[in-house]
Amino acid sequence: MYTYYSMLGRLLDERTPLKSEGYYILNDKDQVIYSTKPPIQGEIVTIESFTNALVEGCKQIVHSFAASPENKEVYAINLYADEHKSFYFYMNTLGRFNETLCKYQSNNQEYFERNHIISLKYNCGDFDFQFWQEHMGEYGKYIALFEKIGYTASDISKDDPIGNVEGVPVVAFETAIIDNGYYVCALKAMQKLIAEKAFAVLDKTEDFIAYASTGNDYIDYGMVMRKTIDQELFYRVFPDLNELDTQFEEAMKQNMNLSVTDSIAFWSEAIEKDYRLEPPFTYSKSEMEVFVQLEQFGNILAKECLDKLTELARLNSIDMKSYKWVTFYIEALHFAGKLTEDQAEQCKKIAVRLAEVDNDLIDSAKELEALAR
Fold it and tell me: Which pTM was predicted?
């Protein structure tokens, strides 16, 4: 299990608020630095202003398309933010989809089957109309600046001092935008576009949908798309997911009386493996769903996690299996409610020990320290 995707789910579901602990600053020498304080000159880009830039940039794309002869039977729009810190705006029409479908069917009989047709219909990589920052007018510059800073920021340690940097600050982005918050910005931008009826200028189909996406199907179909698509419409467009949701609910009912230890054990295959061939993935649910199912235990879950982490911290070395359990128990603490003072102290002690055991656990130790605050 990659708990990163549960963390991302928490952000997108607003379980964990976006927090900026400083700024990534780009200067006129194309250098990027991290600072806890904003620069005294240059533009400051906040989460709100970046989201608004996405909204206005997308509106420019929509209005340009609406004025074109291609504006016929638009059935889907997708604002896609990917792991490489890039944004794309996808659209497709029924006419273009039918042309694409015919090409696929001429070479592969599988594309006469319903599930393959639906998969192709909503695969944005096969959409005929694809746009990016160059099509967003004046607002595209913020996407370009974001990408430039994002490309470098991943190599910057927030623990390092700024040092001597030449040049004049040009722009500063709140760190939360660069550090995964841009996915949230994309979702909020799409929600705002829908609320402002930005797509009213388009000739749309009856089952038109507009949504944001991350490129992770489990997060997208399990959560993100549902935040901008009405449930009845969602199930009409994706009937297989209606069936999977029902099956998942029935499966979870069977676990209602399990203890916290047995509930965690139920998910052990998903925790220890990386192939996503077991629940929750078989129900098209993301990693976060495991923790959502455990949060009913509240502080009992916190106690279980801290006890197990204490045991793992006693090891002289951490192998991959143990590492997965460390990251699992730490992620589960985010779903266990407020820690007691004693539990917060226990977090700190475990964090110290984990940092001593393995350098690969330093980030995990920092997360425990943050949970203890």
Answer: 0.94
